[in-house]
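Sat 14:20. Reprocessing the chain from the morning session after the first attempt stalled halfway. Input below, unchanged.
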Amino acid sequence: MTMFKTHPDPSQWDDFIDYESTSWPRKDRRHYWIIPSVCFNCESACGILAYVDKEQLTVRKIEGNPLHPGSRGRTCAKGVVTPNQLEDPDRILYPLKRDGERGSGKWTQVSWEEALDEIGGRIRKAIVENRRHEIMYHVGRPGEDGYANRVLQAWGVDGHNSHTNVCSSSARLGHFLWCGDDRPSPDYANARTILLLSSHLETGHYFNPHAQRIIEGQSNGATLIVIDPRLSNTSAKADVWLPAYSGTEGALLLAMVKILLDDDLYDREFVRTWVDWRGYLHAERPDLAITFDHFIAALKDLYATFTPEFAAEETGVDAAQIVEAARAIGRARGTFSTHNWRSAAAGNLWGWQITRCLYLLVVLTGSVGTKGGVGLHLSNKFVPKPPTTPAPAEYWNELLFPREYPLAHFEMSFLLPHLLKENRGKLDVYFTRVYNPVWTNPDGFSWMEMLTDPEKIGLHVALTPTWSETAWFADYVLPMGLGTERHDTMSQETHAAQWLGFRQPVLRVAREKRGETIRATYEANPGEVWEESEFWAALTWRIDPDGALGIRKHFESPNEPGTPVTMDEYYGWMFEHSVPGLPEAAAREQLTPLAYMRKYGVFKVKDNVYTPYEAPLSNDALAGATIDDAQALVIKDGKAIGLVVDGVAVSGFTTPSRRLEFFSQTLVDWGWPEHAVPRYVPGHVHWRDLKPQDGEFDLLPNFRLPTLVHTRSPVKWLYEISHDNPLWIATADARRYGVATGDLVKVRTRIGYFVTRAWVTEGIRPGVLGMSHHLGRWRLHEEKGNRNASALVTIDRQGTGYKVTQVHGAQPFTSSDPDSARIWWSDVGVHQNLTFPVQPDPVSGMHCWHQRVTLERAEPGDRYGDIFVDTAKSHEVYKEWLAMTRPAPGPGGLRRPLWFDRPMRPAPAVYTL
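Finished this time. Tokens:
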């Protein structure tokens, strides 16, 4: 029997022959180079194969790379549309400079030399004048591991801003407080029980690598439990669906904790060994002797009120279902796998406590870092070191980490317009890169006000392959390469292993295979599209042309001093010196490490990474260390560096206690003692506080479709599949309002309203509304924007009020792509995020996405896509939430705990106020 292959063998990649699909019934053959790279359309870093036509030098199709340990040859819809992006008639191919007022839509094509000279000269002037704090780089999901951060560090700039606090900071903080790693790394494929909060399989982080492993786990008999008030695709695949009211998940999880404790379903030895129960008893229960049995008794006392009956009353979930789910988790002992990234943690005030409660189940079942459990991302992600490491910045940027949010994970990105409005600073040079805050963030019109004010931002540079709502208000729009037009290294914690992916510009590689000499990637890219790594190097040379500032040296050729580093030199050095095992693997094939990565696109550094906290400390680490026998700690230079377990000194966790911290002394020290242990705190939109008689609902706006992500996916194939985001309304609520599917409804928030269509369904709890994000794109010019994915709109401004009106949605147009004349859809969704005020959690800094809204039938004159916002009201809401904070300084006058993560750590001295 002939076995079919899913992918061509790597031995065929230099000359793969395939039939031309459009020539049937003739059997015309085409020759391809198959060149591996890494997808750029979300943050999963899945491996892809680009089929490059040898004759036409075009990317004909994208498939998964079967050698990639994370994605294993599979791609989702977002990966295969890369050719759409490459051939998009609306993509930006040449550098543009504003010609007129910001937002006027007038642009002039300029040379890269002019752009680099002006931008580099302005940054140089700011550095020389000691105004480094006026330089900021604002990125969404970066798609690379550390290159741009190293650029900023070389400049001496504490200016890295991210989108994390509109995405995952509460989930990160919840994990980090427990174990010192800010992300989970679930081993779904080997799990016995899987628990997902809020639509993970459909809409969650690392969609493709995790989704396939969830399915694999289910195929092997795992029980899938989903907590979500919405019947998502994930919920529909669950063995147990628990549709808890949003914000009440903590009560449900703590009821499960109580069942595990009462039914003796916890892993006693794991908890005794690895949890800092001594610290909890010492701080919170001085009435008890410090023994493990007393700790278990104290836990039972602490959570005694969380009976299944209480949880059922609080969450709306049947008590018997709660018991069933809890026992499935208890039976999993060591093989309980779960994940919480956006979802419940991102939606609710105190959402990080939901994660704390969830991780308590992981800890009680002994499923931390085990096969089938929840790994630690620092152990499952590999980031190689670059050729040189610049010194950290010597100042603290309070526009990124204002003192009101000392525990924020990470930068308080979405507050930037409000911080500037309060005159806390200004920006001279502001980069936005793979980030569209006007559209992605809440309160987008406050961003628009900031971006159009030259007193707030002197020069805005948008690094983007395509138009966006934010790029429209830039001074320079510089076209950057897409996923197959750039170099990057990237790794993610997709499963219990470490791997390194290599993104490469496939047309450049193809032309070099053909014998051409390519000096820079832009020579192989369309138009004048640059790759970002070369852009940053070139810009750095403009900032420090003679090396006098000590910056240029970090981007200088190691082989030809006095010339810029090439990508072959930069990544070649990294692969040769920073990736264990790669040089040896390459040598076995008589290749250099760079040639090996160009050939295969990925390298597995380590497999089966389990229980890293059990790793023995090295002799070097133990040199000069002492043992605290009472705490079983290894102490060096006044700090705990490990634990003693069964007479062996091991690394433990990266928390201050080196153990899993049920009790957080950090939260106590920084003014939040009431939150020191996992606890249930209802969210800011609690169902008991809503007034249904006044039309109040809880709006869930933070789920997305698996075909769309951020600003990278507005292309024809994806929008043909997914192009509208109706408002989910429960059948009972729709009946009360006399609303049918397709009817226009108006949703009012605290700062405005939007008009959209209803979708009546049994798949959501009554009292809850749902509306997906990543839709509702708009443009202000007929031909400058993603025409297949955005509506042409007008914006009428009256003082601090803004009214958005759709002129038309998507419609056919004539272009170089014949498919553009075949667009059959018109709806492109409604931009709800504009109408949301900022709602920062006072501890994690996370924007709390859920909204208390009122629902109305549309009035005469209301049209689909109408939006109104008052930014003055938004600023008032900002001040209300700001008043909830407990600002630094903390212990020792610190701005932030020294053990807390930051994407770029400045010098230790500037941590002190």
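Residues 112-128 form the longest helix (17 residues).
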